[in-house]
TrEMBL record:
Residue intervals passing through the bilayer: 152-173
Protein name, UniProt field: Protein root UVB sensitive 3
InterPro entries in the record: RUS_fam, UVB_sens_C, UVB_sens_RUS_dom
GO cellular component, one term: membrane
PANTHER family assigned: RUS FAMILY MEMBER 1, RUS1 FAMILY PROTEIN C16ORF58
Source organism of the structure: Prunus yedoensis var. nudiflora
């Protein structure tokens, strides 16, 4: 509110907006000599703004990253296709359970549904146990995997009427697939919400996403019921519609993930950044790296057109000391007393790979430094160089410069997004003995 005064009149202006940079004047009140109110803008404009505020974060677009809008557009489109297909798969599942048939019993249908849900819950727990700590570091890949598993789950529901003798097995397999989706999608979405939030507004972004998904769900349900009604009794039409929507769903998911320009450091992004810096002395931006990194799993990278060398796959972080043989342990003891006296990690070359042993007192900064050091060493293996001395010399000369340039380019250098390091070690270097516990 702004107030200007003079001896003859007082003017009060009313402004509206959730962000100081997006304010608009809505009314002007004048007292000269009688009170008058002049409203600005149409009533439709005000109503539209209030509706929009229910679906976009406060302060939009300055309160979110530039990749928020394209990601949300593709994400809503893939969600819409999912809700439409859900009607087809649910219709087939209910038919297989026996809904509408006189021979079907309530207790039998209830038991089958309960067994389906139970296997899904157990699958979710197992998936969290094996992959929970890996979801942050590969948010893009797991986002795709989550939706692929959801597609598989719906496919199992659609197939269930075709295999009545194996009905329980088929629907339980589909439930397990969807349980993976729930865990992976929820975890990666949390990571992406933190990425989008520029003004510590992750809760607001999450709430507005809920509103967007509610609208997409209602539209998808309506279209799904219409499609189910049209295709009822026509198996070929059902399968054609389902497969077509599935292909669109996978494409929309790929495009949504491709839009993301994450500024957190995971193993692959670290490798891409370090290799480019070692060649040119320059640091790539998050947008540039997003076009170079692989979204599909490593085993599928041979199908990709990208030719980025995956040096990070040759680095093993958090190696268990007791898994090394006597010769490797002797080398490790030597390195602890020579090259890494002041470091909170040890590096060792093992069959063309670089093994990292982390100190039990190591911090997140030490983990990032050790991984970058290991990548620098892996980059020298094929060049027949003296690995430890040359890589240490490079780290002494360029590491701090590299980290500073990463910060200037918008990268988060507080930590490396990697699976939890379970195995660590402790070493004591003295004049007469060297010891590793």
């Amino acid at each position: 509110m702004e107030v200007s005064s003079s001896t003859s009149e007082v003017i009060v202006e009313e402004w509206s907006g959730s962000s100081s940079t997006k304010l608009s004047r809505t009314a002007t009140i004048t007292a000269s000599p009688s009170l008058s109110i002049q409203r600005s803008g149409s009533r439709f404009h005000h109503v539209w703004r209030r509706i929009l505020e229910a679906f976009v974060p406060e302060g939009f677009p300055s309160s979110v990253t530039p990749d928020y809008v394209p990601f949300q557009v593709w994400d809503l489109l893939q969600g819409l296709s999912t809700y439409i297909r859900t009607m087809l798969s649910t219709q087939a599942l209910l038919s297989a359970i026996g809904v509408g048939e006189k021979s079907a019993t309530v207790i039998g249908a209830t038991f089958q549904w309960f067994l389906r849900d139970l296997t899904g819950m157990l699958g979710g727990i197992l998936f969290t146990f094996y992959q929970g700590s890996n979801l942050d570091s590969n948010a893009k890949m797991w986002r795709l995997v989550a939706d692929l598993m959801n597609d598989l789950g719906m496919l199992m529901d659609l197939l269930s009427p075709l295999f009545p003798s194996a009905f329980v097995f088929v629907v339980c397999l589909g439930s397990i697939s969807r349980s993976f989706t729930g865990v992976a999608s929820g975890a990666t979405r949390a990571a992406l919400t933190q990425h989008f939030a520029l003004q510590s507004n992750a809760a607001d972004i999450s709430a507005k996403e809920g509103s967007q998904e509610t609208v997409a769900t209602m539209v998808g349900m309506a279209l799904g019921m219409l499609l189910a009604r049209i295709t009822m009794g026509h198996p070929l039409a059902i399968w054609f519609s389902f497969l077509s929507l599935t292909m669109f769903h996978m494409y929309a998911n790929y495009m949504a993930v491709r839009c993301l320009a994450l500024n957190s450091l995971n193993p692959e992004r670290c490798s891409i950044l370090l290799q480019h810096f070692m060649r040119t002395g320059q640091v790539l931006s998050p947008e540039q790296v997003s076009k170079m990194e692989h979204i599909l799993p490593v085993w599928a990278s041979s199908w990709s057109s990208k030719k980025t060398e995956l040096i990070h796959v040759r680095v093993s972080l958090g190696v268990r000391v007791s898994s090394l043989n006597h010769l490797e342990l002797r080398d490790l003891l030597h390195f602890a007393g020579s090259h890494y006296k002041k470091a909170k990690y040890l590096l060792m070359e093992r069959k063309g790979n670089i093994c990292i042993v982390m100190h039990k007192d190591s911090t997140a900064t030490d983990v990032l430094q050790s991984f970058l050091h290991a990548n620098a060493m892996a980059n020298l293996i094929d060049k027949h160089r003296i690995l430890h001395s040359e890589s240490q010399t490079w780290m002494d000369k360029h590491y701090e410069e590299f980290i500073q340039k990463l910060k200037v380019s918008g990268w988060k250098t507080e930590r490396l997004l990697s699976p939890t390091i379970v195995w660590k070690a402790n070493w004591i270097c003295g004049s007469s003995d060297e010891k590793i516990d």
